[in-house]
Amino acid sequence: MTITDITADAPSPHGANENGGTLLEVRDLHVEFHTRDGVAKAVNGVNYSVAAGETLAVLGESGSGKSVTAQAIMGILDMPPGRIPQGEILFRGQDMLKMGKEERRLIRGQKIAMIFQDALSSLNPVLSVGYQLGEMFRVHQGLSKKGAKAKSIELMERVRIPAAKERVNDYPHQFSGGMRQRIMIAMALALEPDLIIADEPTTALDVTVQAQVMDLLAELQREYNMGLILITHDLGVVADVADKIAVMYAGRIVETAPVRELYKRPSHPYTRGLLDSIPRLDQKGQELYAIKGLPPNLTRIPSGCAFNPRCPVAQDVCRTDTPVLHQVTEADGAALPGRGSACHFWKETIHG
Amino acid sequence: MGRYVARRLLQMIPVFIGATLLVFCMMYALPGDPVRALAGEQAVDPAQIAAMKKDLGLDLPLWHQYWNYLTGLLHGDFGTQIASGQPVADIIADAFPITARLTFFAFAFTTVVGISMGIFAGMKADSARDRVLLMVTLLLISVPSFVLGFLGQYFFAFQLGWVQPNVSGEANWNELFLPAVVLGSLSLAYVARLTRTSIAENLRADYMRTATAKGLPRRRIIGVHLLRNSMIPVVTYLGTDIGALMGGAVVTEGIFNVKGVGWSVFGALKQREGATVVGIVTLIVVVYLVASLLVDLLYAVLDPRIRYA
User: Fold this and answer.
1) Residue A305 pLDDT > 60, yes or no?
2) Residue A273 in contact with residue A343, Cβ under 8 Å?
3) A76 touches chain B (CB under 8 A)
4) Which of A222, B22, B219, B227 is deepest in the core (most CB within 10 A)?
5) Does pLDDT of A4 surpass 50?
């Protein structure tokens, strides 16, 4: 190498990814939980990647493994009972699962940060928000108490909390739900990480506040050119902010697509079911569509395609063969970049 | 905050009157006569006894005796012992520091050892060490303290000779060690279990996951985020425990011959010295009330969600 190390962060010329700046790549990740009732296979071979400035939305019902995947990336899984039998989580090309504890701790908060769903229970009730925000600077940057507090006020202003200076010593329960979530966002943002994982950041919020919080998150992401993994079960939240979507079911990714295309032409019966179950004004008075049945028990995932017992188009092959993530193409065979579907009948689903 | 403290202090007045009245009535209801007991086995002229009773005000109706006692208290007069003629205030002044020392020692033992044991076990709930703790504490809870006292005396004083079986009049710190351990062992068991459960529960809290996700070192996560939250129920228990320890000292002081409050109250009970019993019990009640007020104030410091107005 003749060039100095400033290029370490620049896209590698031989990068496999077309935009080169892949921050995080999850490869064939498996997570299982050993419980009294048996082994629950929460994640069964997930692959996805996020680049700087890109937003990946991970969509799925509760129990689909979307949060567990995120926790595995953060390294905050409870192990035991959790276990990662195989897979790789590459952050800037380095496998985090092979790193030492201390090495991973230094990545957490500094390089990858996480926003949790319920800000009230996720913030420590007995410590002031200023203290909890300031902790990031004190621990990772060795700032003094005073310096950390000044930084905390600055952060609170950046996420537009009114009267930040007066409120810095308040406790989480003294803030409204939306303001608390802003504090969570501020905390994740504190050290300007490369990647933020937001685990259902708006689920616990009022609908009117949801949009504000999402807009703020999207704006800050653009400003810092961060990668964002947005975990949600709300299709409405995703549409405006995400670049690409991965739909998860029973610990597997069943469909990936750029966001617009997924809404326009889903290529998996499960995605179609999700889209059809959104209430629509022009269908007022008709019965709302619902995917029949329940999500599978993770200790006994159905053989073949996990979705087959609930699938309206399931055939015999779906009960025996597990579908791989097929490359989805146009009817004439033209490639559709970034699209994949783990359905034996993706052609029929997308092209009718 | 100031108003809250004032209200709490005012509330102590009825509790104080109620407690003294209750003990006063109980002493009155007990069979036996302190004046008659002075003479022992000898036959005494009933007229002489009646005269003595009149002098001491014991011939008055109960309500009048109680009134005299209360007005005496307001003037700082705790009454006088019938048998020895010693003022009760002097007896309390002699005995109270000894009991206070014993209680303090037992309390410190309970707090330090109990909380450490609780943290040690709670960090790994359902592990071998957790089960051992639960078993040992269950044993401590179910064995009465006088059994524990005699066992301790037998092994550590008579068999091993590490300590003296009886505590001398000075009640030095080293002499009080074994009595304090015996006195504190029951509370220790409760504190250890309470801490253990609180720690085990809070370990699974969402804010702990957040603290890990922030990349904080483990020592900070445990020391700052976990302990502060887990100590809230323990502190509540410890406050009421001070009063319980003073009450429990009656038995322990008896076993180890500690000349403290418990020992005095026991002697007074045997001789039907009403004023002494009421005085000491009232003192314990006041200590209890003040301790629980302090705990309630400390509670607000530990948990900012609690505000007093």
Assistant:
1) yes
2) no
3) yes
4) B227
5) no
Do residues A51 and A186 both lie within one domain? yes
Q: How many CB atoms lie within 10 A of CB B50?
A: 13
Please check whether residue A79 touches B, CB under 8 A: no
- B-chain CB neighbours of A76 within 8 Å are 209, 212-213
Residues A228, A300 within the same domain = no
**B39-57 pLDDT per residue, tens:** 666 777 778 778 877 777 7
B206, A74: Cβ pair inside 8 Å? no
DSSP B128-144: HHHHHHHHHHHHHHHS-
B14 touches chain A (CB under 8 A): no
**Which value does ipTM take for this structure?**
0.82
- Could you tell me the two tokens for B217? 């070192």
pLDDT tens digit sequence for B58-113: 777 888 888 888 888 888 777 777 777 788 888 888 888 888 888 888 999 999 99
Domain that holds residue A77: 21-242
Contact A135 B228 (CB under 8 A): no
Residues of B in contact with A109 (CB under 8 A): 213-216
What pLDDT score was predicted for residue A261?
84
Residue ranges, CATH 1.10.3720.10, chain B: 92-302
Cross-strand pairs, A94: A91
Share of chain B above pLDDT 90, in %: 13
Confidence of residue A5 (pLDDT cuts 50, 70, 90): very low
Whether B224 sits inside 8 A of A127 (CB atoms) is yes
Residues A33 and A96 in one domain: yes
Interface test with A, best of B202, B210, B219 (most A CBs within 10 A): B210
Please tell me whether residues A183 and A307 are part of one structural domain. no
Q: From residue B181, how far is each of A253, B135, B188, B253 by CA, in Å?
A: 61, 18, 9, 12
User: Does some domain include residue A1?
Assistant: no
Q: Which pLDDT value is given to residue A9?
A: 41
Same domain, A221 and A302: no
Cβ proximity of A131 and A139 under 8 Å: no
Residues of chain B in contact with residue A169, where contact means CB-CB under 8 angstroms, are none
* Closest chain B residue to A197, measured at CA: B213
A70 and A127, same domain (yes or no): yes
In a domain, residue A10? The reply is: no
Q: DSSP secondary structure string, A6-50?
A: GGGGSPPTT-SSTTS-EEEEEEEEEEEEEETTEEEEEEEEEEEEE
Closest in B210, B216, B217 to A122, CB measured:
B210
Backbone region of residue A304 per phi and psi (left: phi > 0; alpha: psi in -120 to 50; beta: other values) = left
Span B109-145, pLDDT tens digits: 999 999 999 999 988 888 888 899 899 989 988 888 7
Q: How many angstroms away from the CA of B119 is the closest CA of chain A? A: 19
3-state secondary structure B55-103: HHCCCCCHHHHHHHHHHHHHCCCCCECCCCCCEHHHHHHHHHHHHHHHH
A228 in a structural domain:
yes
- Whether residue A341 sits in one domain with residue A212: no
What pLDDT, on a 0 to 100 scale, did the predictor assign at position B85?
A: 76
Q: B194 or A275, which is more confident?
A: B194
| Of the residues A182, A217, A242, the one at which a domain ends | A242
Pair (A224, A334) in one structural domain: no
Of A109, A125, A128, the CB nearest to B214: A109
Residues on chain B touching A133 (C-beta within 8 angstroms): none
**Domain end among A184, A215, A242:** A242
Of B216, B232, B302, the CB nearest to A135: B216
CATH of the domain at A49: 3.40.50.300
Q: Does residue A55 belong to any structural domain of this protein?
A: yes
A-B Cβ pairs (cutoff 8 Å, strict): 74
Check B210 against A108: CB less than 8 A apart. no
Q: Hey, are the CB atoms on B214 and A108 less than 8 Å from each other?
A: yes
Structural domains in chain A (count): 2
Rounded CA-CA distance A26/A50 in Å is 9
Span B169-221, pLDDT tens digits: 666 777 788 888 888 888 899 999 999 999 999 988 889 989 998 988 889 99
Which superfamily does CATH assign the domain made up of B92-302 to?
Answer: MetI-like (1.10.3720.10)
Tell me if chain A has a CB within 8 Å of the CB of B54: no
